[in-house]
């Protein structure tokens, strides 16, 4: 009965989103009194289009939304010649016929370039399951197996070489939590300005709230909420420099809640990326962190450290039709206590097909949501010592879901793959993605978590922690 209910719910979710994808009919006529006719007529008279079909714009003819989108697309190619009033009119047309423009492969990026701003979004619905190996810990059940996440994206251009970006988001929320703040409230997890006009002598300068994308391929990282400054500079033909300084702590962190939020808790890094040839790029980096970290975010019995530093080497490349990512990080901890090692290390490798990669999955999708029918797969493995990464800097943390406390006994609550997915673990990760329809991706994920060094733990029955599964449907618009 349970399996049948799950299958029915998944079908409902799929068909519901498919319905949204196919509901719009681009060949439906634009009503005779629609404001778009007047707007296009004015822009035609101003010289933005030089005819329609037989090179004469027929202002008295009712046309389909598809035909109107073709006209709007032609107008958008001349936006640089428009005054403020005309740009506003073009932007309004672009938003009105956004789905039809997408159908014509007039990509959102092009719309952003021709207009001053753009709004989009992402909706994700996920079914999750797990198979814990430790006594006293039970599987996800009922509504806890489902969650959803909503994001609203804002992008725009302020002036020559200055762009802005913001994103409102909900946390991944279990079904039935709508009456709680984390079930309905949205927060600003991204808000930044990017200068591409030579500020500070750099090619780009990004200031504000962004993902923690300081260096490497994502073993050290965070998808959102890091207040930082990031700069990039090309050195010669084949070398790129990236500098980063940012605060990655946030209210509600499981570590040092009593510490004043004015404590810097910063990460500082510098990276050089070398283009070896058309297929391969090598990146080397050094980093420093002020973040106090203890066993609440490490898979150990007890211990902490006050600061850390280290170096990182990563590669991105192709072997035939396969994409390859690799990363190795070595850390040096200050004032380690308890069972925390002084010089922990970690590495990860990912192999698969699909789009060229710049970061580990699921940081980046393997498929283009605009291309129905395409699919891709990947296999990755990571092995990370305890303490390699400071609190909130684990790139694979929270990539699964499981209960955080055991029901009997002791131990399991201290070793959780949901909050500690990049600490004292060996993890096999498999994933497959397919574009079911335009703007809709289905993803299937599997992870197998094991403790790497059992001598740093207690209360566990063997090294196996959990196996986690996820079926996700994401809709982009």
UniProtKB/TrEMBL annotation:
InterPro entries according to UniProt: Cell_Envelope_Struct_Comp, SLH_dom
Pfam families given in the database record: SLH
UniProt keyword terms in alphabetical order: Signal
Keyword Signal in record: yes
Residue ranges annotated for the SLH domain, each copy included: 23-86
Signal peptide positions on this chain: 1-23
Transmembrane segment boundaries: none
UniProt keyword Lipid metabolism present: no
Protein name as it appears in the record: S-layer homology domain-containing protein
